[in-house]
Amino acid sequence: MGIVLIWCLAVILIRWITSKRRGAISYDSSDQTALYIRMLGDVRVRSRAGFETERRGSHPYIDFRIFHSNSEIEVSVSARNVRRLLSFQRYLRSSRFFRGITAPNSSNILDDDYNGQAKCMLEKVGNWNFDIFLFDRLTNGNSLVSLTFHLFNLHGLIEHFQLDTMKLRRFLVMVQEDYHSQNPYHNAVHAADVTQAMHCYLKEPKLSKSLTPWDVLLSLIAAATHDLDHPGVNQPFLIKTNHYLATLYKNTSVLENHHWRSAVGLLRESGLFAHMSLENRQLMESQIGDLILATDISQQNEYLSMFRSHLDRGDLCLENANHRHFILQMALKCADICNPCRTWELSKQWSEKVTEEFFHQGDIEKKYHLGVSPLCDRQTETIANIQIGFMTYLVEPLFGEWARFSNTRLSQTMLGHLGLNKASWKGVQREQCGSGDDADPAFEEMDSDILPQEPRLS
Ligand SMILES: [Zn+2]
To answer: Number of structural domains, the chain?
Structure first.
């Protein structure tokens, strides 16, 4: 039996090595460095009811293997062991969390204290000043699971939809784990932050009085999964490296399509809604898709002009399911780019994280002569310039219209923070270069695949 097993493993290994994996990209550089960029894209697309989902854990990682010498191989191997250990710890932590078990030792006193503080924070989950970074530390990196589970409960969704809480928890653990914790920005904490913001918008009077439990359910799932399995690089990077996802989605909303399909894959795998009719499940999957696809920033002009037209005509009627759905798309778009509307302390941290991710992509592009994408060059860009451009061309126009739709204290608070944060970045910009108040021209020069040209606030 042992020999058969070894033979089977050997065959599998040889097949794996010799198979041309989808999305594999190799570069040979002139300095004899065997550079191997591999998008670990062992995706097995399943087809069911005419709809394709992405296999859980398809993980479009950008994995760099550089083999210079034996010593580097050793470093690479030991780094891999550390990663293996870390993922094992992550597995342990999440499976214990999933089973509701805490380690029976004296450090529990500390855990209990943290749990108590996390519970305390959840009492103010609808507060715009909610500190998601602190909440993530208090929950030992489980902010997305804890927060979303709490919101399902708070909105009465568990009861209304007769949800199995074990399945719900399992689903949320899978969602959280399919975010890449090594991404500085596009990780589970960002997803938790967007979900918290979405909750704040759902509570706004205009929405709360007309939303159905179905709307709330879809909104929270879409918010929690909207960047699922994000590889930490943008669409142009995937296109220029011929990533299989770019081919699969024909270079259009590549990431958003992947997030959506990944979310659907997890929904089906968890069986969370297995008790619902097939028709309702299919409707849910497609509506979650509409919400997630709306977060494609390159489509912002289209959504914004539609929003403006409705507001100008004053014809939005939230009794109409289509109109409600459109407003939820706008709400999710706001939640996704609301970082500049948070307090300076929170907003600044997000700015640093997103820039780190951009610059990391730029470093890769430089190293492998891929052409550095706009906003990704650490030599020529600064956080302040990027943020001022982002606020001017994307955030201000969107939140300006949102405040027209929902002119509440929250909207005014968000616009207030936005103005203050922009002024703070302008102060930083002046200190750094002693010059003016220019927004980053990259936002104006970008082609529509990256970010659209946004009309200025009129
Ligand atoms: Zn996002």
So the answer is: 1
How remote is the CA of residue 332 from the centroid of ligand 1, in Å? 9
Q: How far apart are CA 292 and CA 249, in angstroms?
A: 15
pLDDT of residue 321: 97
DSSP state of 299: G
Q: How far is the CA of 99 from the centre of ligand 1 (A)?
A: 29
Annotated binding-site members for Zn(2+): 190, 226-227, 336
CB-CB neighbours of 401 under 10 Å:
20
Measured between its terminal Cα atoms, the distance across the chain in Å is 75
Share of the chain above pLDDT 70, in %: 71
Catalytic residue set: 186
Q: What is the DSSP letter of 373?
A: P
Strands 46-48 and 51-53: what pairing?
Answer: antiparallel
Q: How far is the CA of 255 from the centre of ligand 1 (A)?
A: 10
Look up the CATH number of the domain holding residue 329: 1.10.1300.10
Domain for residue 30, yes or no? no
Enclosing domain of residue 282: 106-164+175-450
pLDDT tens digit string along 133-181? 999 999 999 999 999 999 999 999 999 999 999 999 999 999 999 999 9
